[in-house]
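Batch 3, record 17
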Amino acid sequence: MENNINGAGALIQTLADCGVELCLANPGTSEMHLVQALDGVPEIRSVLALFEGVCTGAADGFARMTGRPAATLLHLGPGLANGIANLHNARRANSPMINIIGNHPEFHVGFDAPLTSDIETLARNYSSWIKSCSTSQTLAQDGADAYTATLRQTIESQGQIATLIMGADAAWGDSTGPVTPNGLPERGKVDETTIAKIGDLLGQGGKNVLLLEHHAIGTEALAAAGRIAGKTGCRLLTGTFPARIDGGPGRVAVERLPYFPEQVLASLDGTENLILVGGQIPASFFAYQGIPGQLIPDDCSVHRLSRVEENATDALNRVAERLGAGTELVKHFEKSPIERPQGELSNRSIVQSLAATLPDDVIVATDSGGGNAAYGLCQNAATNSWLSLTGGAIGQGGPCAAGAALACPDRRVLAMLGDGGSAYTNQCLWTQARESLDVTTVIFANGTYNILNVEYAKLGVTEVGEVAASLFDIGNPDINWVDIAKGYGVPGAIANTAEELCGLLDQSYETPGPFLIQAHGELQR
Amino acid sequence: MENNINGAGALIQTLADCGVELCLANPGTSEMHLVQALDGVPEIRSVLALFEGVCTGAADGFARMTGRPAATLLHLGPGLANGIANLHNARRANSPMINIIGNHPEFHVGFDAPLTSDIETLARNYSSWIKSCSTSQTLAQDGADAYTATLRQTIESQGQIATLIMGADAAWGDSTGPVTPNGLPERGKVDETTIAKIGDLLGQGGKNVLLLEHHAIGTEALAAAGRIAGKTGCRLLTGTFPARIDGGPGRVAVERLPYFPEQVLASLDGTENLILVGGQIPASFFAYQGIPGQLIPDDCSVHRLSRVEENATDALNRVAERLGAGTELVKHFEKSPIERPQGELSNRSIVQSLAATLPDDVIVATDSGGGNAAYGLCQNAATNSWLSLTGGAIGQGGPCAAGAALACPDRRVLAMLGDGGSAYTNQCLWTQARESLDVTTVIFANGTYNILNVEYAKLGVTEVGEVAASLFDIGNPDINWVDIAKGYGVPGAIANTAEELCGLLDQSYETPGPFLIQAHGELQR
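Prediction for the assembled complex:
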């Protein structure tokens, strides 16, 4: 078969045929043939980022909003390494994603050129699928297989990460052309015995908790869980940092577990049956001396309706049917009037300003820091899709917001970020400016890694020495986020009062494109 | 033995006793006991960075200037991952470094808390020594062993990277206290047969090249190589991107190999004997279709005087003695008057401005992009220590400059950086401001990953499509580096003419603390 296509061309066309729409790229010399291939496949939108953590965080945000994998294009081991922190978060979010990592051809690796390193060991940290021995003839099929590996079932928007480490000779060598996409596997169904057991357990009433995680908090799954809760009086809980939950007035009410282990145990206190749907027994985020790591009250029995790889929506629907649970008793979040605060900024007034101005249908991206405190109040304010920092690797919120905006150009994205995490991946602002993304970023600028002050106090240290204090303090000098945003082409302003903050938020929601607000006040420090 | 010290305290005191003076930190909850320990050991200076790539890049710069390892303190797998790109560069620079990575206690790992990941596989990418099973009782000894592992011989300023992955329980548990530092191994000596063989080969004259790499371009080694070259007429060459070379007027003249494989082959054309001292046969930075990867001319014989782990200084001195090579014929770089350029900025006038204003005893840190072009002219301008991007992982120059300034507070550091690489690790500016480091940063702001334009043209593509062009273009929007620097507390200015650039450089050299100059002109684009 005579054919002029090379491996890179066949790979990119195959990925487009599979349904890949977006490639977040920071290419280098070893990826030149892939750039050439992207140039010829307009079905895939290519978006440049100035740092690979922005590529991977944005691909995560895209996946959370669409349920489909974006591709990333990264440059050998160091390019991949820069993306790993947000790949860690994406793995914890069960986000589907395909990473294409350029590499030297195998015949060049032995010469130990400067960029040579062991890429496959890096990829093991977060990948569910890795291939590093493609030839130009296998590359298209390897791409199709990578796509399949990322998705358990398209509709459930929960998947995993595939990494294709590709020698430049596989890209430049001859190919017989694109291949046909594979069929996609279906999620396994929960067996009838388990449905009956859990249904009967819930039917007996008592202090029961349905702990819904991963795709078990998808819209359809949550509707079923809401019916079960209405019928049986069980509590609906999700984990501390869900990848995505669609909430706000009119949506099924779910509580999030708190952060600290003592708080989690207090929240679950008195629970008779903890029923896991898609997730695992709550664990302390960190280990502490003398505090348990697995967080289940004494006398609480743990049961499982479904594992992460099983179809939770189907399982919850079947339990609801077995219980004869209708929609009439479902508890929804309710709309409450939220007054616009006045005067100096504090964490409380920042949160209230955000809730009071929140536009309907907003996507909220959070990171470590302030945004998490806004969750509760915002559920009574406006319909929203809420994205959290799933893996604790800070610097995810801004890139994730960019990816969500690329996925949903008709929705406003609000990134509520701590200043510490924002510094990690500040380059996301440039991509937001270049692609004119409708992202409003609010920096909770308290000038400190505040959680570390709290954690240090938990050690029982009453006097914080000079060195320790300096390691928690990211003031001195204060970071001016408006200057940094301006440097990347994103307009912004500092809000010193609640009125200013509300005004700037209003203005940003009415104006297309990105905007950054530094929420800053004496009380913040 | 009654003792109140915990594992963290014993580790930090031991590292101080070994000679560690600097800890570049970005800690999290799992590292709180280490922060507490650092608070009690003032011999170690603790410096915070807003991003881990700054920690590892600065530790590399410190090592290049002192020959001793700094410690880094990083937060689990994601914190380490963010530092790996510059660890890759540090490995290629043979820089000694000790990474301390906090982790969950082993008993907590099984609960799969959000930050849990496979840290050891990440560390394999760049580490020569890894330990991940310390207890509070072994931690101090493990730290002493890590220190030893980083150094082959202190005086040679060439070493390797050790990574101590440390469960929080090893930090908080009881210890019997610090341990005595280990003795340090000596570098092996080259056998007399090799000395005689290489000496005799050189003594015969002919077109011979001494390729000096790693510690073979240290001051003492270079003095011996200079005597050999004076006596025998051989050429002195070093690799394309040496970790550190001390040059300028009065220092032994060495050529650097060029970048592209065709240029390397042209440079070596006609060479009869290529003698490797500390390094390897030159390899093409990337692989290209139809171009060889190992870059040796036909009919050139390859010999080796010393391997990287052997004592090159001793070997070169012995060869010089055997040849009876005195100091009278050594070729040095010579001082030439360099005129201050005028008018619009171009790459050429930027380089000339830098050379014309260069202060003696400067440390120059480069990355990808413009700074490399300045090397030649600067060798006739002022004495300098020149640090290059050893591993091709861009974003190293700014952090490396910070580390060099921490190592040498009496010397001005000049970072000559491309804009693409600077965006990767821009957070280094904040650490430069906080620590009042005497770093002058010049950004070669051409708004493009220019090397990729060159590489793309090498594919034979005559028309660059819209997508490809967008993936090489980091203008649109233009990055304003002065705004970004201001955001981090570093003053700066844009230079649009050569006169402005020279004036700003003069001003910065006279003013303590950091300063950033964006070298920007129409001709740059």
